Amino acid sequence: QVRLVESGGGLVQPGGSLRLSCAASGFTFTLYNIHWYRQTPGKERELVAGISPAGGTRSYAESVKSRFTISRDNDKNTVYLQMNSLKPEDTAVYYCNALSIRSSTQYWGQGTQVTVSS
After folding, report:
1. For labelling alongside 87, which of 22, 46, 64, 81 has CA 20 to 30 A away?
2. Mean pLDDT by groups of 10 residues along the chain of 118 residues
């Protein structure tokens, strides 16, 4: 059974930090690019960051560059998103996505809420 389980969301003040985790199971983790997306009500899902299977290639949306860092631990089948200097506009549900490097197969997690507010 394929599972992507996000955790680490919550309420944080502006300027604060959170670390999101995405734990994967049920598929060959090292054959997948992993991405973090976020979505707010009434808006399309936005790509935030991505990382290649071995972790050598990382990409970020302009809005989060220099503040967010994506990483992965292939021994633990887990991807992380370290979010620093959080702003109210970072408030969203954050989703983990796994996209196969060999096909169009992809999986989604259930999402975790991040709220940045004073």
Report:
1. 22
2. 97 98 97 98 96 97 97 98 98 98 96 97
